Amino acid sequence: MVERESAADIEADAARWVVRVDRHGQDPGVRAALDAWLIGDRRRVGAYARAEAAWTHMDRASVLAVQDAPATAATPVVRRRGVIAGLGALAAGLVAAVAAPRLLARRYDTVLGEIRRVPMADGSVAAINTDSELEVSMQPRLRAVKLERGEAWFAVAKDPSRPFVVESGPVRVRAVGTAFSVRKREGGSDVLVTEGVVEVWTEDGRTPPRRVAAGERVFADNDVGMISPPKADTDLTRQLAWRDGQIVLDGQTLAEAAAEFNRYNDRKIQVADARLADERFVGWFLTNDPEGFAEAAAQTFNGKVSQSGDAIVLRGG
Known about the structure:
Strand order of the largest sheet: 1-4-5-7-8-11-12
CATH class of the largest domain: Mainly Beta
Protein name: FecR domain-containing protein
CATH topology of the largest domain: Jelly Rolls
Domain FecR protein: 107-199
Number of strands: 19
Radius of gyration: 25 Å
Order of helices and strands: HHHHHHHEEEEEEEEEEEEEEHEHEHEHEE
Largest sheet: 7 strands, mixed
Distance between the termini: 81 Å
Low-confidence stretches: 57-103
Mean pLDDT: 82
Pfam family, one: FecR
CATH architecture of the largest domain: Sandwich
Number of helices: 11
Helix content: 25-40%
Organism: Caulobacter segnis
């Protein structure tokens, strides 16, 4: 028969967890381990809430004393209980938050063709591109965003005490107060900075974090953990035109342009002529106007447009 943990042991372990999360809370492995610990015994939920309340609102030394002591030492636990004796109501309010951090997280998604602007609790703003999904978790010392799929641009409110970290697969992007976009691709993530500076790294730690400044972009590879050197990008306005529901073409091939329109629409553009696919085009269009683009391209290059089910077919003349 497994011996049930004593209340003193749970209180001591909770204090250790609070300090660990404070120091390494941006590590998904630490958050997952905390979740596993919390669900192992329902008494741990309240213990963690009380420890976090003490850590946030009282002298950290009171909690650190418990972290450094053996789990069986009763004296530091009693002393810490004295420190948090008046925090019962606050701890009760925190129970739901620490019981399952993912339950408090806000999830946002967009359907095909939808572009959504989302204000966050800390004053930051996210613009979420078509067919995207993300999860936002505002924690005491970390603002964590998990980009499940797609693309988003973030205007981050300044808060040096709470870094803003975006997780995109194994790629991490950290900022304090800046503006940047992250696009999750099959093999990695594109990071484009429009204001301030961010740090980009991968969770395997094989590549040192790279600093990326305003006007620069990098690509972080999922498999090899490599991050390309930051490159100046003078085309930021075009690449982020989606925030206003626009696609701006400035010398892209018709094949590339068709792929971009297909991100936003059920009706897909097919460029059926290989020669035509390599032609380059300049123009401004709404994301939801693939027909307008196809007609303009056909007029420019003496082609023709036909409909085939849900496809818009562009051929040479």
